[in-house]
Amino acid sequence: MSRKNLTVAGLVTAALTVVLLTFALRPEDSTTSGTLRQASVPNPSQEKTIKKTALVQDVSATDRLNRVDVSKHLRTMLSDTHGASPEDISAYARNLQQGHGHITMLMLIDFRTQKTTTYKSSLPEGTDHENKQLLKYLNTAKSAIKGHQSYESPSFVIGSKKYYFVAQRDQEGQLGVIALINQKILDRVAQHQLKNLRLIPYPKEGKYRVESVHADTLQDLTVKTGHDNENASHYYENEIVVRFRNGHPTAGQLQTIAADIHCKEPRKLGYAYIFRSEKMNYSQLKTYFAYKWHPQYTEPHYMYLTNDTVSENTGANVITPNDLLFSTYQWNLPAIETELGWNLSKGSKEVVVAVVDTGVQADHPDLQGQLLAGYNAITNGSTPDDDVGHGTHVAGIIGALTNNEEGVAGISWYNKILPVKALDNSGAGTTYSVAEGIIWAADNGAKVINLSLGNYADSQFLHDAIKYAYDRDVVIVSASGNDNTERPGYPAAYEEVIAVAATNSTGERASFSNYGDYIDVAAPGESIASTYPDNQYAALSGTSMASPHVAALAGLVRSLNPELTNKEVTELLTSNAVDLGDAGHDKYYGWGQVDIYQTLQAAGGGQVPLQLFPQHVGKQLKSMQ
């Protein structure tokens, strides 16, 4: 027998052996290993009540997160300024307030000299009753630190704004500090979650020429309640996406189109063009292109919206980071065995994770050194700054600085984050901006792309962009949506994408989470603590929060074993998930909730994982033919 035939025979034998071992070592059937969680689907009325509860929970958790964070900053101020000159203390206070705009007033009391220095000394003014309440809490704060006690007041309202006082005293008892905190972040989170959890009709129809159609029939649809979103796809009424059958039109043909439909120069991305007419609506534009140009396809220019909503005894060390908010608030990381997983991989700066979203706050102290320059698909040439908060929150879940005694811990310690702004200051983006963001990320080094956004329209234009990235070996992860519906959402439902559902702290399906046969895995998505603009922290719920858990895991896997293809990474994530629903794949949890430690164990360190060995054998056999 020739050497080549011997090699082939050996490879075939090895492949058969692995297949047999895989079946022999398969975990016992779920019916014998314990009762699995059964998902339930609330009706629209129950869904609304549950979502309102989730919103209140997120606002309450955000309040707690920021009270802890502010108290820490005040303690640090007292420690860092001990023995400093008045000028240095003033500079420190000024820098602290500049970096944390919610600190409305700082009052430093030197108990040795009984001198009080106030920074930004003007207090907000309201009604007589409101002013009296403010002074009451301020005097209580002074009394508390005089008695060597720390203090936090309840929230109180001045005008339309909410505040609270917090007071700290140093260990030597020489200095005390009182801060007045503006709680505007609570209103911001509440408004964010009203839209994100689809508790209100969003986006508003008739504004900026936004209209809605039924995702199946494309018949006009009016969105009157948040629940109506499950059947709606929003689009721009005076725009159309066109892919011409014979490549690209000539300059002369584009001039003819411009004159016929009264439009300026179209936007072009890949093979498709977006035309915006000054006088024609989508229906008229569709008829025009169908009869005169016979294109390969036409479709509306859709909008995409944000989709924000105990360790096994293995012998491995549990790595507990010292981040301020980790132990108390980040239930989500232990739930998916992150601390054990860090023994195997903390990520690599060579593996870039793109966040195609609303942008990211570049100078957030808990994201310093984690971000690359990125791209703005909304305003070309501008930096991808976050004017919503969603993208900053998503980025922090993936890669907030870990073990830095600040804020929250990210899942990845070292993977770089590539911020791509594809959603505008309302939290919405278009087919064009999202597709452009995906293509740009794929062309600029992303190994993983997170898409915490979606719509119910199956757009060929967007799918082309997804395929473009997938063909370049990018792992693509997307949120399934927050409408508690079985309707497939896109881009999550595309076969090239890992579709993520959300779970809560008890491992059950989050009530808002979309479901269906297209779901691949689930991840924590209720009241997730992460970074937020203005150097703050917020707790948000949504599949938007679940998706970056999976994207971060994909980044860890590719850091540990760079040889794996995007298809192999997906297979590892799904086959090592913890089954939570019916045995095997089900429409509520997919293959189950991701398990970071188990997945990284299976991924190996540069070697071919056992379960993927047959595919690698197949590749080698094919290459020898």
UniProtKB/TrEMBL annotation:
<keyword id="KW-0964">Secreted</keyword>
<feature type="active site" description="Charge relay system">
    <location>
        <position position="390"/>
    </location>
</feature>
<comment type="similarity">
    <text>Belongs to the peptidase S8 family.</text>
</comment>
<dbReference type="InterPro" id="IPR034084">
    <property type="entry name" value="Thermitase-like_dom"/>
</dbReference>
<dbReference type="GO" id="GO:0004252">
    <property type="term" value="F:serine-type endopeptidase activity"/>
</dbReference>
<dbReference type="InterPro" id="IPR023827">
    <property type="entry name" value="Peptidase_S8_Asp-AS"/>
</dbReference>
<dbReference type="InterPro" id="IPR022398">
    <property type="entry name" value="Peptidase_S8_His-AS"/>
</dbReference>
<feature type="domain" description="Peptidase S8/S53">
    <location>
        <begin position="349"/>
        <end position="592"/>
    </location>
</feature>
<dbReference type="InterPro" id="IPR036852">
    <property type="entry name" value="Peptidase_S8/S53_dom_sf"/>
</dbReference>
<keyword id="KW-0645">Protease</keyword>
<keyword id="KW-0720">Serine protease</keyword>
<dbReference type="InterPro" id="IPR015500">
    <property type="entry name" value="Peptidase_S8_subtilisin-rel"/>
</dbReference>
<feature type="active site" description="Charge relay system">
    <location>
        <position position="544"/>
    </location>
</feature>
<dbReference type="GO" id="GO:0006508">
    <property type="term" value="P:proteolysis"/>
</dbReference>
<protein>
    <submittedName>
        <fullName>Serine protease</fullName>
    </submittedName>
</protein>
<keyword id="KW-0378">Hydrolase</keyword>
<dbReference type="GO" id="GO:0005576">
    <property type="term" value="C:extracellular region"/>
</dbReference>
<dbReference type="Pfam" id="PF00082">
    <property type="entry name" value="Peptidase_S8"/>
</dbReference>
<dbReference type="InterPro" id="IPR023828">
    <property type="entry name" value="Peptidase_S8_Ser-AS"/>
</dbReference>
<dbReference type="InterPro" id="IPR000209">
    <property type="entry name" value="Peptidase_S8/S53_dom"/>
</dbReference>
<feature type="active site" description="Charge relay system">
    <location>
        <position position="357"/>
    </location>
</feature>
<dbReference type="InterPro" id="IPR050131">
    <property type="entry name" value="Peptidase_S8_subtilisin-like"/>
</dbReference>
